[in-house]
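Protein: Class I SAM-dependent methyltransferase
Species: Shewanella chilikensis
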Amino acid sequence: MTAQLWDKVANQVNFNLEIDVQRFCHLVKPDARILEFGCGVELRRFDLHAI
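Structure follows.
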């Protein structure tokens, strides 16, 4: 995606999406190794060790 295209759509993106913890736990096993979880304000507050 080019910078010009991103500038046109960036204000439409919600960067503060809630994490569906129940769905996450259903899909990811407790002993799974996670390389990349994403980015965003909400993800910084999401503590994987707490679940």
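Remarks: The mean pLDDT is 77.
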